[in-house]
Amino acid sequence: MKNNVFLAFVVLIITIACIFPMSADTQASERAISDALGRELTIPAEITGVVSTAPPTTMTLYLIAPDLMLGWNSELTPLQKKYIPKQYQSIPVVGGWFGKTDGNFETFIKLNPDIILEGRTITGDPVDVNAVEDRQSQFGDIPLITVQDTANISGYAKSISFIGDVLNKKEKSDALVAYYQTALKTVKDIVSTIPEGEKIKVYYAEGPDGLATDPSGSQHAMLIDYCGGKNVAETTITPGYGMTPVSLEQVLSWNPEVIIASDSKFASSVLTDPLWKDVPAVQSGRVYGVPVSPFSWFDRPPGTNQIPGLYWMLHTLYPEKFSTEQLKEKITEFYSSFYGVEVSATELDGLLSDVPVYE
C-alpha cells in the first residue's frame, strides 16, 4: 500500500514539473505594456521585427534599432543612401499613413512584424482610441502600439525612452536621450543670453520658388523658435503638411536677415535672383540650404532626425556663440553613435554646405 502511495506521489510531482515549466516558458515569451493612449497590450518578450506607420516614429526606430526595422515609409533618395549603411538600404518600402499618403494593411501584415508602431499626437479625445482600435482590427493579432508624437522640439525624450523599452534597446535609447538633452540645454543656455531685440529675423523658404512658409508655432518651424530666431512670417498655420503660400512682397516687407531654404535649387539660385536682391538675407549671403542626409535636420518629418539640427540652427543663426568646430564635433558624434557611419572631414564640409542637387 505504501509503495502505491509513494508511486502515485512521484507521478504527481513529475506531472507538475512537466506542466509548470511549460507555463512559465509561455509567460516568459510575452509581456504586458501600456501604450501612449493607455491601451493595455500583450507583446512578445523579444522583438525581432518591427515596422512603423509614419516617418516621425520610423526616424526614432532607425536611430535606436535599425536591425529590427522591416520597412521604410518612402523610397530612399541617393542623397539619403550616402549616409545609410548598405544593409539598411535594401529594407523594403511599405508606405504608411502620413501627410497625403494612405497605407495598405496587407503590405504591413505580409512583413510579419512582431509589433507595429503608430505615432500619434495624443489629444485625449475618445476619437483617438477609436481610430487606433479600428486600425488595430485591420492588423489582426499584430499589436499596434501608439507612440506619443509631439509638435514640441523639446518633448522627444519620452517617446525615445518608450520605444527603447518596448524594443529592449534601453542602452541605445538612453544614449540618444542623453545626447538630445545635452543639445537642448546647450541651445537653451546660449539663447538665454541673447536680448529679445537682438534675435535674428528668419524666413523659412519652402518650395521651388521659396514662396511657401510655416510661421512661429508650426511644427515645421520649431527649430527657429527654440534656437533663438525670430520667425518673421506673419501668416496663418496650415494644418498638417504646412507650407502656407505667401507673396514676394510679403517676404520683402518682413526683411529677414537669414533664409532657411528647404529646396536646394532655390538656396543656390536666390542669391543671384534680381527679384530677391533687396532682401537683407540675400544681400548678406545668409541663405542656407537644410542638410538632409540621411534625413532632414530641420523638418519633414518633424522628429528625432532634427536633433543634430539643434546645433546646426544655433550655429547658423549665432556662429559667434557656437563655433564651426563645436558644430563639427557634435555632428560627427551623432552620425557615429546613431547613424552608424563615420563622417570624413570632406563629407562633413559637404553636409554643412548648401544641399547638393540630385536630379
UniProtKB/TrEMBL annotation:
<protein>
    <submittedName>
        <fullName>ABC transporter substrate-binding protein</fullName>
    </submittedName>
</protein>
<dbReference type="InterPro" id="IPR050902">
    <property type="entry name" value="ABC_Transporter_SBP"/>
</dbReference>
<dbReference type="Pfam" id="PF01497">
    <property type="entry name" value="Peripla_BP_2"/>
</dbReference>
<feature type="domain" description="Fe/B12 periplasmic-binding">
    <location>
        <begin position="49"/>
        <end position="321"/>
    </location>
</feature>
<dbReference type="InterPro" id="IPR002491">
    <property type="entry name" value="ABC_transptr_periplasmic_BD"/>
</dbReference>
